[in-house]
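Lab meeting, item 3. Inverse folding demo.
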C-alpha cells in the first residue's frame, strides 16, 4: 500500500508541476506526463497483484479473483507498452533537439542534466521491467509473474523521485509546491500564481471595482 501511495502521489505531483509552470510545458515533457499517467495506472493495479499473491490463487478464490487478475494483467501490459513507446519517443525527440542545438548554440548545463535525467529513467525502466520479460520468455508460473509485476510498480515509484532529484526544472517547481511557495514558481501558467499579491492588495483592487460598479448604477438610476 505504501508503494502504491508513493507512486500515485509522486506522479500526481508531476502533473501538478507541469500544469503550474510554463517552463515545464515543452514537447519533451509531454512525453514525461504520458509516462506519469502510465505509472499511475501501474500503481493502481498493485492491490490486485498483492491480493493474488496473498491468496495464492487457490481453487476457492479463483472464481471471483480471475476477472480481477485479467484486468490487472491487461492494465500492466498497457502500461508496459505505453512506457516503452513513450521512452522511445523521448529518446528520438531528445536526440533530434540536441543535434539541432549543438549545431546552432553551445550546449548548456541544464540541457546536459535533462538528458542525464532521461537516461536514468530509461535505465530504471530496463531494470524493473527486465524480470517481467524474462518470466514471460521462460513461461514462469503465475506466482513468479505476480512477484515480477510488483517490481514494475517500483519503477513507477522511482520515476517521480528521479524527476525531483535530477531534473533541474522539475526539482525547482516541486520544491515550490511542497513548500507552498506559489509566488516563487517560475513562469507560472495561472494569473493567481503569477501575481502573488498580498490579500490587502487584492482587497483594494476589489474595492475599486465595486465602487466603479456602484457609481455606474447610480448614474443609470439618475437618468431614469
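The presenter then showed the designed sequence:
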Amino acid at each position: 500500500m505504501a508503494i502504491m501511495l508513493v507512486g500515485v502521489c509522486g506522479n500526481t505531483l508531476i502533473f501538478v508541476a507541469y500544469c503550474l509552470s510554463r517552463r515545464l510545458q515543452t514537447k519533451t515533457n509531454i512525453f514525461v506526463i504520458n509516462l506519469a499517467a502510465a505509472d499511475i495506472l501501474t500503481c493502481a493495479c498493485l492491490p490486485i497483484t498483492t491480493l493474488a499473491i496473498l491468496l495464492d490463487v487457490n481453487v476457492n478464490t479463483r472464481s471471483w479473483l480471475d476477472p480481477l487478475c485479467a484486468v490487472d494483467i491487461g492494465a500492466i501490459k498497457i502500461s508496459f507498452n505505453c512506457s516503452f513507446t513513450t521512452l522511445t519517443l523521448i529518446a528520438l525527440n531528445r536526440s533530434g533537439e540536441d543535434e539541432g542545438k549543438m549545431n546552432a548554440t553551445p550546449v548548456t548545463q541544464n540541457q546536459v542534466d535533462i538528458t542525464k535525467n532521461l537516461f536514468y529513467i530509461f535505465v530504471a525502466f530496463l531494470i524493473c521491467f527486465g524480470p517481467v520479460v524474462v518470466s514471460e520468455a521462460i513461461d514462469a508460473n503465475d506466482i513468479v509473474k505476480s512477484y515480477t509485476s510488483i517490481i514494475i510498480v517500483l519503477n513507477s515509484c522511482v520515476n517521480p523521485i528521479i524527476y525531483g532529484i535530477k531534473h533541474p526544472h522539475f526539482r525547482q517547481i516541486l520544491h515550490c509546491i511542497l513548500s507552498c511557495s506559489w509566488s516563487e514558481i517560475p513562469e507560472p501558467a495561472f494569473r493567481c500564481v503569477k501575481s502573488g499579491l498580498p490579500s490587502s492588495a487584492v482587497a483594494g483592487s476589489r474595492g475599486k471595482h465595486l465602487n466603479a460598479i456602484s457609481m455606474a448604477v447610480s448614474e443609470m438610476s439618475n437618468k431614469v
